[in-house]
Amino acid sequence: MQPDTPNNNHNPKIRRLEITDISKGFIELLRQLTVCGSVSETQFQDRFQELVTEGENHVICVIEDENTERIIATGSVFIEKKFIRNCGKVGHIEDVVVDVSARGMNLGKKVIDFLTAHAESVGCYKVILDCSSENKAFYEKCGFNQKEIQMVKYFT
Amino acid sequence: MQPDTPNNNHNPKIRRLEITDISKGFIELLRQLTVCGSVSETQFQDRFQELVTEGENHVICVIEDENTERIIATGSVFIEKKFIRNCGKVGHIEDVVVDVSARGMNLGKKVIDFLTAHAESVGCYKVILDCSSENKAFYEKCGFNQKEIQMVKYFT
Fold first, then answer.
1. Residues of B in contact with A87 (CB under 8 A)
2. What ipTM does the predicted assembly reach?
3. Is B34 helix (H, G, I), strand (E, B) or coil?
4. Helix (H) or strand (E) holding A148
5. Which residues pair with B126 in a beta bridge?
6. Which residue of B39, B80, B94 is in closest CB contact with A87?
7. What are phi and psi of A124, to 5 degrees?
8. Which long-range contacts (CB under 8 A, 24 or more apart) does B138-145 make?
9. What is the pLDDT of residues B40-64, one digit of tens each?
10. What is the spatial order of strands in the sheet that A126-131 belongs to?
11. Going from the N-terminus, what domains does chain A have, and what CATH number goes with each?
12. How far is the alpha carbon of A68 from chain B, nearest alpha carbon, in Å?
């Protein structure tokens, strides 16, 4: 591995999603997670602005490769306000993905730690996420424990 | 069973949570689900108003026993806005509980159907929830299938 390859970028910065990140491969990265469809720049910007209005209650983080200026990891957390637990709050982590070329660099843990710290900072009593059984060990390394099962109903 | 007992109320109405429902045992009902702490009327009203500002993106439904004027079932759904799936939306069902005295009357299914229909009506491509393995069969009856596992990290 050469010193200037992306994989040698040992301490890449993590930051919040910016409106210009669509040109840095943000949607292409999400396609490694699941179906995205053809998200236009306008659609991206509209959804971005909608999420901005949620402030600290919906945060998306990204890691950008400083050499290539491409987004190589992302994840989101949104805050649910409840009545239970003294009108408590819960962080829900969603849509975590690391670019195939950047795996094995602990970027996934960096993303989870960022989102978890955010949930704690806004007063959540817990943070939860759903994952496949294959990813259980990874999340255990991030300090999570299995609790329940996820049920789903698709409309389309 | 007498004709006028609550359990003989075969078609109880389901509606959205109202700010006066704290006096109808809403918090006491949630205590059958988990720890609630001492939620004061002011705390309840403040959280209620916060959730009202989320409009169709956070809906709590209740079933009231018309004889006793007590809340005997509830559940909530909030809508997550994503970039994946053509900037799709997902409904998250939370905090479903039926009063012990009113179980076996299909009120749980009524709550789930209401919340699921809401998620579909606002354009979600799926609705999800986390539950214990013991409740899996109930949610299968409601049209859900098991998909993933839930991981949790507690802060307190």
1. 39, 43-44, 46-47
2. 0.92
3. coil
4. strand A145-154
5. A154, B90
6. B39
7. -65, 145
8. B138/B108, B138/B109, B139/A151, B139/B112, B140/A151, B141/B109, B142/A153, B142/B109, B142/B112, B142/B113, B142/B116, B143/A153, B143/B116, B144/A151, B144/A152, B144/A153, B145/A151, B145/A152, B145/A153
9. 999 999 999 999 999 999 999 999 9
10. A14-16, A58-65, A70-81, A89-98, A126-131, B145-154, A145-154, B126-131, B89-98, B70-81, B58-65, B14-16
11. 6-141 (3.40.630.30)
12. 23
d(CA A38, CA B66): 50
Contact status, residue A103 vs residue B127, Cβ threshold 8 Å: no
| Residue carrying structure tokens 């999603």 | A17
The pTM of the full predicted model, rounded to 2 decimals, is 0.93
DSSP E strands in B3-65: the ranges are 14-16, 58-65
Write out the two tokens for B95: 């905090």
Tens of pLDDT, residue by residue over A6-53, are 445 567 899 999 999 999 999 999 999 999 999 999 999 999 999 999
